[in-house]
Amino acid sequence: MHSGSPLEKTPLGKNAGRQALERACAALGGIILDKDRQIALALACLLARGHLLIEDLPGLGKTTLAQALAKVLGLSYRRIQFTSDLLPADIVGVSVFRRDSGKFEFQPGPIFAQLILADEVNRATPKAQSALLEAMEEHQVSVDGDTRTLPVPFFVVATQNPADQIGTFPLPESQLDRFLMRLALGYPNAENERELITGEDRRSMLESVTPEMTPEILTTLQQDAAKMHMSEHLVDYIQALVRQTRESPDIEIGLSPRGAQALAAAARAHAFVERHSGVFPDDVQAVFTAVAGHRLKPAGNTSFRSPAEMCQHVLDSVAIP
């Protein structure tokens, strides 16, 4: 299998976009320690024009990763703290009557930014959660009968606490499907945790981070990632994996056609981040759990204890081309 950090495979040459991606990856790795795989997946998610869900315990760097992505990639950034009393208007905005003009004037909500951090999204009620749906899917919002386009690029990073914690409202399947990937950061190793304890505060480091690219360069990289070559054999492999999720007795609900499209887009973007000449089976395997884990529903009698185990079972059940 191909291995290594996301940007250490082949020379970048004079390609400005590639060089910017290399610098961005290095900058992110200096802030989020010991998480090269998660950083590569987060960048692949963005390059595939998807949205990212990070699910983990509090204090493991979920918010820091979102802030670092915005700073390093040169994107406008807004944070929305999801709470039980959050209203849809608090997200998309509201029309305010102006006495001097005698007209209503729209006041944009925090959703009108290029990178949105939806922090602790499962602490809000389903009504507030649903306000994200149109924005994430259509890149636009409707307020008072008017449709308003969101900035380009538009990327939502949502964090959520484990569902067994107090005061959480599980995301419905329809909203989970809006996220291209779901990741967990996990605990750092002992060496990097010691650096976190004794070194500079990560929030202070974020203040000194300079953008390594522009939204225009990022948009070009997204277009280039979508053009990564995928052979017929790779398409067969993706279809075989999808079919296995639908036919396995351990899985009640398998991947939908949209899930299959998401898997292909994520694999292309991962191959681009890894600087492969085309999409390899390794790329599909690298993104499979992040793309499929939150879309699969285990059967009631399954022995798998986690989505990762279930996804690994699917990968092990399908021959590699």
Query: Averaging pLDDT over every residue, what do you get?
Result: 87
Helix-strand makeup class: alpha/beta
- CATH class term of the largest domain: Alpha Beta
**C-alpha Rg (nearest Å):** 20 Å
- Name the CATH architecture of the largest domain: 3-Layer(aba) Sandwich
Spatial gap, N to C terminus: 13 Å
Structural domain count = 2
Q: Quick one: overall form?
A: globular
Helix fraction?
A: 40-55%
Which topology of the largest domain does CATH recognise? Rossmann fold
State the major sheet. 5 strands, parallel
Low-pLDDT segments = 1-14
Number of helical stretches of at least 4 residues: 13
Secondary-structure element order, as H and E?
HHEHEHEEEHEEEHEHHHHEHHEH
The counted number of beta strands is 11
CATH superfamily caption of the largest domain: P-loop containing nucleotide triphosphate hydrolases
Task: Please give a structural write-up.
It is a single chain. By secondary structure, this protein is of the alpha/beta class. The chain has two domains: 13-226, P-loop containing nucleotide triphosphate hydrolases (Rossmann fold, 3-Layer(aba) Sandwich), CATH 3.40.50; 228-321, Magnesium chelatase subunit I, C-Terminal domain (Helicase, Ruva Protein, domain 3, Orthogonal Bundle), CATH 1.10.8. 45% of the residues lie in helices and 15% in strands. It has helices at 16-31, 36-47, 62-73, 88-92, 126-138, 173-176, 190-198, 202-207, 215-226, 232-247, 257-273, 281-292, 307-317, and strands at 52-55, 77-81, 93-98, 103-108, 115-119, 140-143, 146-149, 155-160, 181-183, 251-253, 297-298. Strands 2-5-8-1-9 form a five-stranded parallel β-sheet. A hairpin with a 4-residue loop joins strand 3 and strand 4. The protein is globular. It starts with 15 loop residues before the first helix and ends with a helix. Residues 1-14 have low confidence and may be disordered.
